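Q: Hi! First time asking for a complex rather than a single chain. Here are the components, and I think there are three in total. Is that enough to go on?
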Amino acid sequence: MCLAIPAKVVQLFAIEESRALVEVAGVRRQVDLGLLTDDLPSVGEWVLVHVGFAMSKMSEEQALDQLRLLRSLGEEEAAVAEVEGYAVDEAATG
Amino acid sequence: MTIPVPARPKFQDPQIEMAHGAGGKASRRLVEDLIAPILLNCGEPLGDAAQLGIGGTWIAMTADSFVVSPLRFPGGSIGHLAVNGTVNDLAVSGAKPEALLVTFVIEAGLSSWELEAEIEAIASAASRARVVVVGGDTKVVEHGKADRLYITTAGIGRPLPSMRLAADSVRPGDKILVSGPIGDHGVTILLARGGLDLEADLVSDTRSVFPLVESLAEAAGAGVRWMRDPTRGGVATSLNELARDAQICVVLDEAAIPVRDEVRGACELLGLDPLHIANEGQFIAVVARQYANEALQAVLNTWGGERAAIIGEIREHPAATVLCNTGYGGSRVIDMLVGDPLPRIC
Amino acid sequence: MKFVDEFREPEIISRVVAEIRRLADPKRHYRFMEVCGGHTHAIYRFGLTDLLPENIELVHGTGCPVCVLPMGRIDDALELTSDPKVVFAAFGDMMRVPGAAWSPLAWKARGADIRIIYSPADALKMAEKNPDRHIVFFAIGFETTAPSTALTLVRAREKGIQNFSVFSNHVTILPAIRAILDSPDMRIDAFLGPGHVSTVIGCKPYEWIAQREKKPIVVTGFEPLDILQSIAMLLRQLQGQLQGEDAKVENQYTRVVPWDGNRAALRAIAQVFELRPYFEWRGMGFISQSALRIEEEFAAWDTERRFAIRGVRVTDPKAAQCGEVLKGVLNPAQCKLFANECTPEQPVGALMVSSEGSCAGYYNYEHRKTLYSDCCSSVRCVP
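A: Yes, that's all I need. Here is the structure of the assembled complex.
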């Protein structure tokens, strides 16, 4: 129940409001937008696709925030360790 | 080291299912537990082609049947597969393909132009592969009794003197080479069947791999231990067979395995693993470590081998297992499939 | 691949792993349950257990809709194909799951018209293209998939397509989690919440887990970084609990999961489905209000009302311990049938045949690691 893939909307169909063409890594598939009628995606936006239906819009901002947070993990500790390192040196040299 | 083939068939499955033809575990059971014990009387691991000596001359022989739907697909058709499949079986057994026999089982109602198209395909593939078609047979069955057209080809070839291949010559430290990107053929066929509504610019990779094998033999023949063309069941199945036959461990490096973006995209969408998907124009080889660089360079510098890569190595433990390293410290076991890979939603 | 590759970057992964090691208390043994089969699959696929310290154990729960389906339901549907007009259409996941005697693929080998589809919309299209056949769509899945089935039924009615019906086996995730928490042998410290179910139901429905049961729960994505980050978040919550903080629901999968869920999807489910008073879950018995059946308004497209369904009940062999494994009480290797009578090639229970099943995952992965550590250095070992 969980296989869902991020895909980019490349074409919306004017006649059938609830269908779109999406693409992932060069593979194209038509998906049903019927579950996103409250907030339809536009061309260029990314959606999460599950069994041929778009389930949710993907937020690039949230993704970047998350990655930024994770990339900075350990930096605080590293900074603290460096300062502590100086303290040890000072103690050694008296 | 050989796996003793049982004297009496111990095949337990009550009926034959599609899985038995898919190239995975069930296929292996059918061959090892039912067919081999009755028909073959050697104790050797089963390879892609047989080599026999007749009156002082060694020849390689193989046969293969081709059943595919649809008959024509981007990149080729059943006729191309029928030639290249058998040519490749000979090539990866270390032989130069020379001649083919072709038999047709035709379903009544197949249009003549379709048959003609396949005969042309066979002619053109044979010409490109530099083999001659020397004979064959034709049968027609009633409408509904065959899936339009079945083709069987039998091939003979001349073993290359520079190669001596055997699963039990594989050693820890040996490297694994692949001739190009994997998964193209199987995904192309899946998309061509139309049920999945996916579109991609993908074509089958069907071709003769002999030119690449020849370059490999010239540059590093003495160091090549084992080869296989990973058709049904994919690279995973071939490597699992090696791991079992040679009682060693295969360790793959996920990041090094060449896969086209579109194949990757389609596999992610469908929940498939490219390692389990059929290829019709690639081979994998195990090469002794000291020859690995020359081997790779030889294939890279041959037309059609530009995406060859070293994708892993052989280790001692755990035996009979294929592992894949993810690139960030984790690993997973790659198993043979039971039957055909099925798209999943979960 | 965007939104995928970034979440598999080795450098960031090693940072999160370091964070996990920093946060985990070496004197404690942690048991985190993931209730989504997709997480089970991802953990094995990405080899994540190799990266975690020994004292963090990931327990696989009931989130595999194939695993929890009672065998009899498969037989009920397959029996319909004895009428040559009927086509049985289902996702690939279902095709090898054994019923009392045969799996759908085995029925297909005997001539039944069984077809693999990727979307409920494919089944409807099949009905349009084959007006002389009746397409039965065997629907499975949790709340992630139910809205798509619901919309397909709405479209079937709009287009007036009569030769189509749905055999609904949709189940809901919360009663399963409740059953796990109510189990007397329950020893779970915290939960990795289902990422894609939550795109539909949002994060609020899990609040009782944190507030009443005092268990932390983090709604989690499916890439390695997602799962690892969630583990770090759970560890932080558990640390916080020791200092008097309350357990809470957190959303790790913010790029996809809206806190309030997807209103349009929930509307679709409400329009087409209603809760069954009870439904049998494989290995766990009957659970009330845990599954969806089609509402009266759509009765004409409900397989169970269009056809006479026998209601086959097939009991698992007594020795099979699917239920305890599903609830995380036993690990797969502790089931007596594991690796003997029950293997991926000859599965007794669905947990061994489904790609998400914990037994299949364990068999293919952990089991070999144990064999390796037991074996001597001789080259001649036979698994």
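A: Residues 239 and 322 of chain B are 7 Å apart (CA to CA). Let me know if you'd like any chain examined more closely.
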